[in-house]
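Predict the assembly for these two chains.
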Amino acid sequence: MALELTGKHLIAGKWVGGDKTFSSAPAHGEARTFANGSPAEIDAAVKAAEAAFLTYGYSTREDRAAFLNAIADEIEARGAEITEIGTQETGLPEARLNGERGRTTGQLRLFASHILNGEYLDRRYDPALPDRTPPRPDIRLMERPIGPVGVFGASNFPLAFSTAGGDTAAALAAGCPVVVKGHNAHPGTGEIVAQAILAAINKCGIDAGVFSLIQGEGRDIGEALVQHPLIRAVGFTGSLRGGRALFDLCARRPEPIPFFGELGSVNPMFLLPDAVSARGDEIANGWVGSLTMGAGQFCTNPGIAVVLEGAEGEAFVETAKAGLEKVNAQTMLTDGIAAAYRSGASKIEGTEGVKAVLTTTCDLRNAKPYLFATTGAAWLANHELGEEVFGPLGMVVAVTDTDEMLKVAESLEGQLTCTLHLDPGDADLGRRLMPVLERKAGRILANGFPTGVEVSDAMVHGGPYPASTNFGATSVGTMSIRRFLRPVSYQNIPHALLPADLR
Amino acid sequence: MALELTGKHLIAGKWVGGDKTFSSAPAHGEARTFANGSPAEIDAAVKAAEAAFLTYGYSTREDRAAFLNAIADEIEARGAEITEIGTQETGLPEARLNGERGRTTGQLRLFASHILNGEYLDRRYDPALPDRTPPRPDIRLMERPIGPVGVFGASNFPLAFSTAGGDTAAALAAGCPVVVKGHNAHPGTGEIVAQAILAAINKCGIDAGVFSLIQGEGRDIGEALVQHPLIRAVGFTGSLRGGRALFDLCARRPEPIPFFGELGSVNPMFLLPDAVSARGDEIANGWVGSLTMGAGQFCTNPGIAVVLEGAEGEAFVETAKAGLEKVNAQTMLTDGIAAAYRSGASKIEGTEGVKAVLTTTCDLRNAKPYLFATTGAAWLANHELGEEVFGPLGMVVAVTDTDEMLKVAESLEGQLTCTLHLDPGDADLGRRLMPVLERKAGRILANGFPTGVEVSDAMVHGGPYPASTNFGATSVGTMSIRRFLRPVSYQNIPHALLPADLR
């Protein structure tokens, strides 16, 4: 198919757009004009979502699985256009967008099979005990969809965390209609994916209110979405500042709703002495790859390496420096992200106790890596050093001894991931670190790098604040469907009136 | 054992109390003096809880089960004193307190067996796929305890929702230390239960920081508890106003935490025509019993009956009136609750379109039932009629037809329960109501009454706001343990470093 864009919102099956527009700011190619949404359009989309819930919320799991698979098929059918517009808008390379498309369709198909097996319903049954004093009634429990869900597209995953990304897939799988506030960094990519979803809606004969995409760049639409009385929950991936503002709006509603925000992380790695001794260079080179992949624009980018001070720690820094020097400039997602990267680096460079190991000049939207080094004492004294700088910026924290390494671990804020690099001789120190790190992060890994988040049953992409706003939830993997479900008990309900899945 | 009270707080195994005191206001017998807590005492208790988590959070399920069973044993050993002080303080009859004690110990034992079977850990395992491109690492997921939990005792369940009640049992079962802010309506009852917990701590050799009870009547201690940086979640049962204030404090923290508040409900019943025809009197008499049990001081008290207007509806009202007239005055839990009951009744009586069917004069702390009748139109026009009045107050809403019955259902705020009374000929109307009610309540029941909440696997005691502040959670039943857990992924972690439950 040729790339054809309406530049409009998709509201319940209709492409609509008013007088207000905004211009895209692609990394390559020409800017395009898109409709710029308003609270009125959010309202229309959410009302259509609520109306669609009356049927979609009671659809069979088989029908929803077929719908999810149809969306995946329709995305695949538009693969070339998605990559064409996606690379223009985001500056991400073609191979990355092709891979991310596979991740996105894989995610949709995974949720299709996940709901078919029915375990997510968490059905529980207490049979009646009529002879007990007092008699126990028949009680059955099942998870039910919550209603319309608001989803915010993320700048750094134009496919896998945006229009038909993980939040949308999980909500649709649960039985919840979705209203997406598209990210203004990739409106064209969002539109093509919305076209795919609409095609699947038509193919499956589903109420078109089940999905809407509102384009725009104003804060007012996001605020209207999270405050709409018919929205039951929100999925968000983005910055701490923006996410916290929306979280606060959700909490202040007359009827508060959950805001599932994934707000980022510095993803520290702890390098234990035997591992550094045996394979410091290998770890350093692995780090260079993980830190600079996708211009470092991953939520799980490992920004901090904690190592014992001394010759082996210094060698690690030198190897990392040598590796990072060879990394070419990479295009960042937006001018704003590139500017924030530069100012974040300056702020760190100006912090007392921090040494610049490798600095660089980035022009406009391009990024090259930075590497800084500091001491455990300086880290512990400067809380800001633990704040995320989005991009390929690494910092090595050299601690005086294992006790200080523990202190650095204890000082951490909530993280998406914490990593241990350890050899068998490091096991005792690993055992001391494990209970500390387990409380700090949603995922603990050993002898690997946190980028490349597996979409699977056992994945947790979340963690204590500010990694996420709900430490009990994950935004990746099949468990993420839980965010859009609520348990309901049915007591002595006649068989014919029970939901089909409980009969 | 003889009734012996220190009148002090229990902080990590020590009975402590400063200069500040308050006086209890028992329904019967003499007032007693109790320590009146301060934020400093909350701080000491929470810090001890955090210290205890370092061992208790890593205890085996077998050890925690033994501890829960020991608490139940120690409560049983103090049964006579608990009932003695409990009846004095709350005015609840002896049989009720004995029954509630059984519910409390049963709940503790249920959680002991629940954690032993291990299903609550929700373990998930994605085995490594080394030959895949890219290779998949070994990923394992398990639910882990979150850390110190704050619990607020409830006035209406001095045992089952207070010191060693459902929230405490669930948190301790999960592996979380607990700091209880005791309800000032039953400080002596709370102290005896705390004595039982301390005895179990000593018997099992557990860090005494795992449990503290802070007595007091000031709002400052509750506010200090929910805002303490080391508290990870809060369990609360109480009023909408008080609960919302604490919810807001939790949401506004620098690091927001979940506030699991169960804030009450009017628990409407829908009486379908064939059922009213066939057994209107039976339903009316059942309602009288459920509505007035325990002076109507249950969260699941069914305050509203919706019925079609006409002769059969009027007969239902008359039967209910006749039954309610025979109910004796009952002592309410506190003077404040009795005063709120009277003012709530006056407000309803003064609402346009409301007819007083049965009014009463309650003196001081005593309550007799009220019965009001209104029309569907008046109900729909007056949102306040849907607000809970705590006590034995019933309202019959007579609707013109089944469409108006649906409208009343659609107008409801979130509820703990909704009830259908229906006969086989009512099935079509039941089918229309089910999807509406399912979105309004945590539990839907048929041909029964919502009081007498079963503590079991399939129970949901929760629901959309304002029934609870987290529609995804329950505060009764084994599923309530989820509130105090968070999922953690372990990726490629060496066997020896995995938590025992994942090896």
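Chain B has a mean pLDDT of 96. The CA atoms of residues 156 and 298 of chain B lie 7 Å apart.
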